[in-house]
Fold:
Amino acid sequence: MKNITMAALYVALGLVAFKSAQAVEKGPLLISEVPSGQVYSDSDITALKNQDIEDYKGSSSNSLTKDYLLYAKVKATAVSNLTDAELSFLNQASEHKATAFQRHPEGPIAVPVFDVASLAKHKLFMADVNRQYKKLLPLLHSDPASFAEMSTKTPAHTQAAKQLLERTASEKNGAVSSGAITSTVTNLLVDNYRNSDSQSSLVLLKALVETTHNYTAAEAVLTSKHKSPLKHQLLESLDGYFSDSEQEALLKQLITEKSELASQALIKYGQLPVSTLDADILYRTLSDPKLGASSALSIARLFESSPDYAQVMEHLKANQKSRVATANSLLVLKLTNSAGSKAALQDILNKDYIQFEDMKVEVSSWLN
Structure:
C-alpha cells in the first residue's frame, strides 16, 4: 500500500512539473488566438484618441474603448497621496487582462493597445517610492548610517534615496547650501555602499558621483564585481565630473587591471590631452589579443592632432615576432588614414618589418 501511495505521489509531482514546464514554455499571444472583435487597426486607435474622452463615459462601448477609459483613469490617478479607494483601484487595475489588441508590426503577435496592468503597477511602485522618500528624508542628515542601510532594502527604497540624493545640492567652495550633503555624510555613504557592493548600491554610488563628484564613489562603481550598464554610462561621462588627471588615474586603473571596462577605458584614455596621458600604456596594450584593437583606435585618434609614426614603426620593429602586435601596429596606421601614415606603411614594407606574408599582402592592398 505504501508503494502505491508513493507511486501516486511521484505521478502527481510529475504532472505538476509537466504543467509548470508548459507554462514556462508558452510563447507570446498570437494574433490568431485573439477573437476578431478584439483586434483593432491603427485607424481605429487613432480615431479613438482623437475624440474627447468625456464622449465615451457612460456609453455602451467596445473592448478598445473600455481599455482606453480604464487606462486613462489609471493615468490620471496621482500617486502622491493615495486614498484607500485609489489604492484599491490601482491594485485591481494591476491585475487587468487586456481585451483590446493590435498586430505587432514585425509579426503575427498580439500586442495590448493599452497596457493597463503595467501602468497600474508603475503607479503603485511610485506611490511606494513617495512613502519611502518621506521616511528617508529626515535620516539623510540626522542618521546617515540608517539612511544607507534602509536605502537598499527594496527597489522603492533605492529609487527614493536616488531621488533624494539627486535633489540635494553639492558642497561648493566650503559653503553648504540648504539641504546639501556635507563631505562627512558623503564619505560615510560611499563607504557603506562600497562595502555592500550590491546592484542597489551601484545606483546610489552613481548618484553620489553625479551630485558630489566623489572620486571614491566613481572608483567603487567602475571596479564593482557586478555587471551593470551604469558602469558603462559613468565611464562615458567621467569628463563631466573629474579633472583630466583624475580621469587618467581612473582609466589607467581599469586598463592595467584588464577589467571588463578595459576596452572602453582605452578608447576614453585616448581622448585625454596628450600632456595628461601615458602613451606607453597604449603601446604596451597593442600586444594584447583582446585589447589591442581598442588601443590601436586610441593611438590613431591621438595621431589626428599629434602624429608620431616613428614610434609606431619602432614598436612594430621591436615586436616583429608577435602577430598580434604587428597586426595592431599596422591597424594604427590604417585607421589614421593620412598621407603620413600611408608613407609609414610603405616604409615598413620597404624595410621588411612585417614577418607574416598574409599581412604583407594585406598592407600592399591598402596602398594600391
